[in-house]
Amino acid sequence: MALKIKSKLFSLAKLAGFIAACVTASFAVIAPLWLFANKAPGVYSRAVMLAAALFVLYKSARAAKKAGLKKSLFFAAKLFIIAAGFALAAISLANFSRLFFFISVLAAAALFGAVRALERHADKGRS
Asked: Model-level pTM greater than 0.85?
């Protein structure tokens, strides 16, 4: 019976030690970031955005390497067309320009369709 109690107490002590280590490690990481964000919020925001952009660029490059150049270029072109279409639509809505909104949405749809058709044509030529 005494052995079971010692075993349970040892398990509880290990759990408490693990929790303490996690709290200490998280405080060691979060406290400097919190201080940096409070002292220089503009610099902190730019640093975080740069880190996020570098991460996305790294992951995109790895995915492009696996998928192949042609497939990656078509994906990037379609993504750019969608993003530009949304951006132009949002700008035109903010400026209350219905004609520019209509033209930007139609142009984005036409460009997307053209790139998609080119992609399908390139796929047919490969098989």
From this structure: no
pLDDT (tens digit per residue) in 53-103: 899 888 888 887 888 878 888 888 888 999 999 898 888 888 888 888 899
The amino acid sitting at 8 is: K
Contact 105, 85 (CB under 8 A): yes
Question: Tell me, what DSSP letter sits at residue 68?
Answer: -
Single-letter code of the amino acid located at 114:
A
Residue positions counted in the chain: 127
Radius of gyration of the chain from its Cα atoms, rounded to whole angstroms: 27
